[in-house]
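Sample intake sheet
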Amino acid sequence: MIIIDCPFCGPRDHSEFSYGSDASIKYPDLNSSIKEWTEAIFFRKNIDGVQSETWHHSSGCRMWLEVERCTKTHKIYSVIPSHPE
């Protein structure tokens, strides 16, 4: 079981959340080529270790969070509100 410490609701089971994506990905502009979008969406590194991810607290406060999590152990190192660019 993964416990995510929501900054708004406190510690909650991960089943209350929906995984968003790798938070380090910079998506192309909307008018970019199909090739650029295909590479951004389908050809990403599969990180084996600590990565930043976005999670949506869909069954709670409905806020988007940035979670720093180890993909090997699922240990969570930090949780902060996500800020859209």
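Comment: The first strand starts at residue 3 and ends at 6. The two ends are 31 Å apart (CA to CA).
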